[in-house]
């Protein structure tokens, strides 16, 4: 019997961490040939060469396609997408996968999904239907949805939005956010071990800061991040763990500002190019909150019963738990939000918070695996627009 060739695409440390539970599930399937297409930040020294953290055990074939240039300008990103189209098309010609699996809304996946479409390869897409109105990722995500054939949404609202885009409901599934599986499956580090790994003491006033550029706004990365740093400086007792941003437009500005801040505040701040999924999730056990504009603050963090300060418009439109504090990217508003984060009233209600991305009915990755390993692929390529107006 011919094995089904399933190719997983990964272009960044964050999305690989989310996909890892699915990759682990697929490794146990004897009926498939598991392939991995590695690209983007994974292959960049500037972003930590994180491909070295990927375990290739149990993966039949691996392709690496380097696309990032030493530029995060709009022109540089466009060139990277062009390189991706060329490289991914050639990789698919060698791998000849039966289906491509990708997660999220980054430009690397957009190029990979486009190349797959041209090569008549069905695409299974995770985390479609979400809204990020402050980012160029918003139209990219929906474009990937239209090039995809199987859809795995993180909430029921997102599932309905995918159907609204004309996708057949029989191919759209809601099994919750796959990142939650890591919380159930991964053995997290204890506090002493984690502090030794980080070389940093975590106390009752420690926060994790993860901030990315808002790609639909011009000349705001430096201004917004300076407002955040100025707000943090208003609290002498705070200890800060920074993570570097992704390879988005103007991301290097934020990286430079983080490095300068840590250099001048070694007694209370530390930064990491890439923490890795284990150390990142382990840190969430012990910090008092997450500050910035990362999707993780909305999707995974509420399951740790800690607060998130969500700054600016980067995640505007996304479903949020009550543990998320929205605030404008202004110093005074960020200060007020930090005060709320540490307030007795806010902390007292966190244990009763429910994470809208966490379903209680089993493991998300196993359910996704069951679909992509058994769904009849022959019927997927020729899509029909599912017109809600005529179906209701």
Chart the SSEs and their pairings:
Layout (H helix, E strand, L loop, with lengths): L3 E7 L2 H15 L4 E8 L21 E5 L8 H22 L3 E5 L3 H12 L4 E4 L10 H11 L2 E4 L2 H9 L7 E3 L5 H6 L5 H8 L7 E5 L10 H12 L6 E5 L7 H14 L4 E4 L3 H9 L4 E4 L3 H4 L7 E5 L12 E4 L3 H11 L2 H5 L15 H11 L13 H4 L1
Parallel strand pairs: 1-2, 1-4, 2-3, 4-5, 5-6, 6-7, 8-9, 8-11, 9-10, 11-12, 12-13
Can you offer a commentary on this structure?
- With 392 residues, the protein is α/β, with parallel strands linked by helices.
- The chain has two domains: 4-176 and 359-391, Rossmann fold (3-Layer(aba) Sandwich); 189-352, Rossmann fold (3-Layer(aba) Sandwich), CATH 3.40.50.2000.
- Helices cover 39% and strands 16% of the residues.
- It has 15 helices and 13 strands.
- It has helices at 13-27, 74-95, 107-118, 137-147, 156-164, 180-185, 191-198, 221-232, 251-264, 276-284, 296-299, 331-341, 344-348, 364-374, 388-391, and strands spanning 4-10, 32-39, 61-65, 99-103, 123-126, 150-153, 172-174, 206-210, 239-243, 269-272, 289-292, 307-311, 324-327.
- The strands form two sheets. A seven-stranded parallel sheet has the order 3-2-1-4-5-6-7, sandwiched between helices.
- Helix 5 links the parallel strand 6 and strand 7.
- The longest helix is centred in the first third of the chain and has 22 residues, at 74-95.
- The N and C termini lie far apart (42 Å).
- The mean pLDDT is 91.
């Amino acid at each position: 019997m011919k094995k089904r060739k399933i190719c997983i695409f990964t272009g960044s440390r964050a999305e690989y961490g989310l996909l890892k539970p699915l990759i682990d599930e697929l490794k146990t399937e004897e009926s498939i040939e598991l392939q991995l297409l590695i690209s983007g930040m994974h292959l960049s020294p500037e972003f930590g060469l994180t491909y070295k953290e990927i375990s290739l055990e149990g993966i039949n074939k691996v392709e690496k396609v380097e696309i990032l240039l030493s530029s995060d300008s709009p022109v540089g990103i466009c060139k990277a997408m062009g390189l991706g189209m060329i490289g991914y098309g050639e990789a698919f010609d060698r791998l000849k996968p039966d289906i491509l699996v990708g997660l999220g809304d980054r430009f690397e996946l957009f190029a990979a999904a486009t190349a797959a479409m041209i090569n008549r390869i069905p695409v299974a897409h995770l985390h479609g239907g979400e809204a990020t109105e402050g980012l160029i990722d918003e139209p990219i995500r929906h474009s990937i949805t239209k090039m995809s054939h199987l859809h795995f949404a993180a909430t029921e609202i997102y599932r309905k939005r995918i159907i609204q885009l004309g996708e057949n409901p029989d191919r759209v599934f809601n099994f919750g956010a796959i990142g939650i599986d890591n919380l159930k499956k991964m053995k997290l580090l204890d506090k002493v071990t984690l502090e030794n790994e980080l070389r940093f003491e975590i106390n009752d006033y420690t926060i994790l800061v993860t901030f990315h550029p808002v790609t639909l706004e011009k000349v705001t990365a430096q201004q917004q991040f300076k407002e955040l740093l100025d707000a943090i400086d208003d609290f002498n007792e705070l200890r800060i763990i920074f993570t570097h941003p992704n390879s988005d437009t103007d991301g290097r500005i934020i990286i430079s500002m983080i490095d300068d801040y840590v250099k001048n505040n070694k007694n209370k701040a530390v930064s990491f190019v890439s923490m890795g999924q284990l150390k990142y999730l382990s840190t969430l056990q012990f910090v008092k909150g997450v500050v910035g504009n990362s999707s993780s603050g909305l999707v995974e963090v509420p399951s740790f019963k800690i607060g998130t300060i969500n700054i600016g418009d980067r995640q505007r439109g996304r479903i949020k738990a009550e543990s998320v504090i929205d605030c404008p990217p202004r110093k005074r508003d960020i200060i007020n939000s930090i005060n709320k984060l540490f307030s007795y009233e806010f902390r007292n209600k966190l244990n009763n918070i429910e994470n809208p991305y966490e379903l209680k009915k089993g493991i998300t990755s196993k359910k996704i695996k069951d679909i992509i390993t058994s769904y009849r692929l022959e019927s997927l390529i020729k899509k029909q627009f599912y017109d809600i107006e005529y179906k209701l």
